[in-house]
Specification:
By secondary structure, the protein is an alpha+beta fold. The chain is built from nine helices and 21 strands.
Length: about 550
């Protein structure tokens, strides 16, 4: 008879089962932090950091909670909110740290790699086609994901601040849910999905603009009638610029600065469901030719109009037919102009003061006065032969140059021999040539002449309104230009033109009472008025 064996029989499978129980909690895999390889930090939020990482040679996103007494509580709240969600646009939890781990973290599915703002900003920099396509993918992905969350049995209201948005290598946008700090029970949920979509699109697009341009400017979407606009299709050449505004401003002086490109979200009332929005946009994207309107927009109240400035606002909404690329020809207040690199002032229209008398700049290019900061039309300044550096009122305030009298028998090649010549102070000249030049050829005596009046003068000693640059650069000529009203002068009478004022001159070959005044012509050739028969002491001087 065999004695009974009282030895305890152990199941060899029990250690494996125990390890499986330790490796799972609430249906989630327990991940040891030593098995994770963190690559770089992606973004942060209240109480947590997101990292790109690797786990078992697969790309993952790791959410690490800040150390503290409530770290585990935050982890469990996040798991409770996200556990069991299964949707291609909602980030799925793969595992978490154990309760006894020194670091509390959650590992998400194989999502690689970046927050949405970075790739969207890169698309804006790279080109219009990629920007439009990726922008619509964001709208479609968020619509689809929010619609899924909206039909789930969730007892709290989620806001845009409670989400992080990521993008994987397949251009798939993914929502990560963070439990709100003060959860609210909704009284109604009819439009909560639409409100969340609008707020989240606004948040992500504005963040992308901030990443690219390093500023945060709130834009007002342009309202337009889609039926009256041309349509551009992604993947095709850009539309030709045919607007009158662009044609008028396309001149040789236009800068070649690249356009500033931004996303703008336009909130619209619609009866569509979020699921319909996602389906329609996906349908347009599937054919890889997304139609979108293009138009040029002018803000007549904006006085800052540097030549060559263009801002392309990719204005998106829930329908491709209501979206457009809007090209602006002037920067908004608080924006740094990429042409002149100045910050655009608020209410710049108050500083518009053009010689034409218009109350606002309209669509014309403007220039800023270097003295008072007022803005004027370039075309008006050019038409009046004024410099683009000064407005017409500041030109009048410039001091008049003193009369210049040439002593008899003076060496005309040496300005220092002039009777009352003083070296001009604080003047700028365009080139190193001598400041004054006189006719080198012999000049015969000129008979006395009566006062010459032209249509440019109200009376003998009143010069016309200045039409010139402020820099004083006198020149000499040997005869008036052909076709000038003054035709009875000897072709050898010397006279001097002056930019910035007028000079009175006595010639060694003239009788002492003869003098000449010259000013610039708007052609911009010079025009002249000769004012003889006055003695030097009584010669008044034309002032600006």
């Amino acid at each position: 008879m065999v004695a009974p064996d009282n030895t305890e029989h152990l199941d060899w499978r029990e250690p494996a089962r125990k390890r499986m129980r330790e490796d799972e909690e609430d249906g989630l895999e327990i991940i040891r932090h030593r098995d994770l390889n963190l690559i770089h930090e992606m973004c942060s939020g209240p109480g947590y950091l997101f990292h790109a990482g690797q786990y078992k040679d697969r790309a993952v996103i790791v959410k690490v909670f800040n150390a503290g007494a409530r770290a585990r509580e935050h982890l469990e709240a996040t798991v409770a909110l996200s556990k069991g969600l299964l949707h291609p646009n909602v980030l799925r939890i793969r595992g978490s740290s154990s309760p006894t781990s020194s670091s509390q973290f959650i590992t998400y599915e194989d999502a690689y790699w970046k927050t949405a703002e970075g790739p969207l900003a890169g698309a804006l920099r790279d080109g219009l086609d990629r920007s439009v396509v990726l922008g619509f993918k964001l709208v479609a992905g968020l619509s689809s994901g929010i619609n899924y969350l909206n039909v789930q049995d969730t007892s709290i209201v989620l806001r845009a601040e409670d989400f992080d948005v990521f993008l994987d290598v397949n251009d798939r946008f993914l929502l990560s849910i963070n439990p709100p700090s003060n959860a609210m029970v909704p009284t109604h949920r009819d439009n909560s999905g639409w409100a969340l979509l609008n707020a989240l699109c606004q948040k992500v697009f504005r963040s992308a603009n901030r990443v690219l341009h390093d500023d945060d400017i709130e834009r007002t979407p342009v309202v337009f009638n889609p039926s009256s606009l041309p349509t551009w299709v992604t993947g095709s050449p850009p539309l030709e610029q045919t607007s009158a505004t662009v044609e008028e401003q396309a001149d040789k002086g236009v800068s070649s600065v690249a356009p500033r490109r931004e996303y703008v979200w336009r909130t619209m009332e619609t009866q569509q469901s979020l699921a319909t929005v996602a389906a329609q946009i996906h349908r347009d994207l599937d054919v890889r030719r997304t139609p979108i309107h293009k138009l040029t927009w002018t803000n007549a109240q904006s006085a800052h109009r540097c030549p060559g400035y263009v801002r392309e606002e990719i204005t998106l909404t829930t329908r491709t037919a209501d979206s457009a690329v809007v090209s602006h020809d002037s920067p908004d207040p608080q924006e740094v102009c990429p042409v002149c690199h100045e910050v655009v002032i608020v209410a710049a229209v108050d500083f518009f003061r053009c010689v034409c008398g218009d109350s606002d700049p309209g669509w014309l290019i403007t220039s800023k006065c270097s003295m008072c900061g007022a803005l004027s039309h370039n075309v008006c300044l050019a038409g009046a032969s004024l410099s683009l550096d000064l407005c017409h009122l500041c030109v009048k305030k410039l001091p008049s140059p003193p009369p210049l009298f040439i002593e008899p028998n003076a060496d005309v090649s040496d300005p220092s021999q002039y009777g009352n010549y003083d070296e001009p102070q604080d003047m700028e000249v365009d080139d190193p040539e001598p400041l004054y030049e006189l006719a080198a050829e012999p000049v015969p005596d000129s008979p006395s002449r009566s006062l010459v009046e032209t249509e440019d003068y109200d009376w003998a000693w009143r010069a016309p309104e200045p039409r010139h640059s402020p820099w004083i650069v006198p020149r000499s000529f040997s005869y008036p230009p052909p076709g000038h009203p003054i035709t009875n002068l000897s072709p050898y009478v010397p006279y001097t033109t002056c930019i910035g004022g007028s000079y009175l001159i006595q010639s060694p070959h003239w009788s002492p009472e003869n003098a000449a005044i010259a000013s610039l012509d708007p052609t911009p050739e010079v025009r002249y008025a000769v004012l003889p028969s006055f003695s030097p002491p009584s010669l008044p001087h034309a002032s600006l």
